[in-house]
Amino acid sequence: MKSEDIARLAGVSRSTVSRVINNYQNVPEETRKRVMKVIEEYQFHPNNSARVLAGKKTDTIGLFIVSIAERDNINRIYRNNYFSPFVDAVIDSANANGIYVLVNSIYTIKDYEKIKRAFIERRIDAGIIVGTEKEIDVIADVVSMGYPFSIIDYSPEEVVHRIKKGRVAVINSTDDEGIHRMIEYLAGLGHRDIGILSGRMNTYSGRVRYEAYQKALKEYGLISKKEWVLKGEFIKKTAAQEVLKMINHGKLPTALLCCNDDMALSAIEVLQNEKINIPEEISITGFDDIMPASLVKPALTTVRVPLYSMAQKAVDEVLKMIGDTSDSLNIFNLETELVIRDSCKKIN
Question: Which of 1-5, 93-97, 332-336 is predicted least confidently?
């Protein structure tokens, strides 16, 4: 059913139907009721494209989830312990503000065209992007066109350097402080041999966490040994292979700092399969504090990232920017928190 059909059945003009749909005030109440009765009776849904062409907002934001690295994992978003709660948090926060969320997955470089297309076709008013391998040139193009964007886990320095015009918010967590607190905690337990299961170095969080680990070791007079620097790439399967390689190499560190919880859970599984007791023979720590971290045995000591607050901030910032056409670049760093559980042991 089209709007002209509604107009005919209600005995009004098509422009009157449009004014009722778009909630204009200059429509007599009796006419409004007559049009709404027909709309409800025939379950008419107005064409959103027509509203956009008329200069109306879509009341929709786009959430773009980037997951290019795990090409062989078809569940890399659906079963991801980081992405899934983040998507839920964005939707909850947006819906509380009367805003819809259009969720898009980016699995290949070509998929970045989804971002431009969603804006050009006027299906969304603003965008939020989260993931690891974010293509800054595409984001810069979209932002320069005047569309507001929140970016999660991206280098503020890179954004400042590459994006000269537009409306953008960069939202990160204080990962460096979280890593420093974890090294401080482990050193306080007597650990001198602390290895790392690192993430991808081409990601902001991967670099920040690794560099903070190296810096903290030096601060406490500890040495980073090559055989205990494992490249887990933020991928469970890769992390498991690296941990098994370390076990087969010989002497273990007394503690292994994992740069996200998924890799820590993978490390725990491998170590337990190899009959290596945690934390008696090796202490394990994570980062993020995803749901399974408190459920695994032993419960995982980790750094809590304020995921819900970051999602809420991302939504709040794009909604502010939709209503403000002036250029803006805002950078936010939300506090992390050390969460002590059972996976670490004090040693002599």
Answer: 1-5
Beta bridge partners of 61: 101, 126
234 with 288: CB under 8 angstroms?
A: no
Tell me the C-alpha distance between 318 and 59, whole Å: 12
- The closest of 291, 323, 321, 313 to 304, measured between CA atoms, is 291
What the chain holds in terms of domains, given with CATH numbers, is 3-53 (1.10.260.40), 60-173+307-335 (3.40.50.2300), 175-305 (3.40.50.2300)
Order the strands of the 194-198 sheet from edge to edge.
229-231, 194-198, 255-258, 283-285
Confidence of residue 48 (pLDDT cuts 50, 70, 90): low
Between CA 160 and CA 177 the distance in angstroms is: 22
55: pLDDT strictly greater than 70: no
Dist. CA 239–CA 231, nearest whole Å? 7
What is the rounded CA–CA span in Å between residue 8 and residue 341? 68
Asked if 201 contacts 132 with a C-beta cutoff of 8 angstroms, the reply is no
pLDDT in tens, 132-156: 667 778 888 888 888 899 999 999 9
Q: Is the peptide bond before 279 cis (omega within 30 degrees of 0)?
A: yes
Q: Are strands 337-339 and 194-198 parallel, antiparallel or unpaired?
A: unpaired
Q: b/e per residue, 313-348, with b = 16+ CB within 10 A?
A: bbbbbbbebbeeeeeebeebeeebebbebebbbeee
Contact 253, 347 (CB under 8 A): no
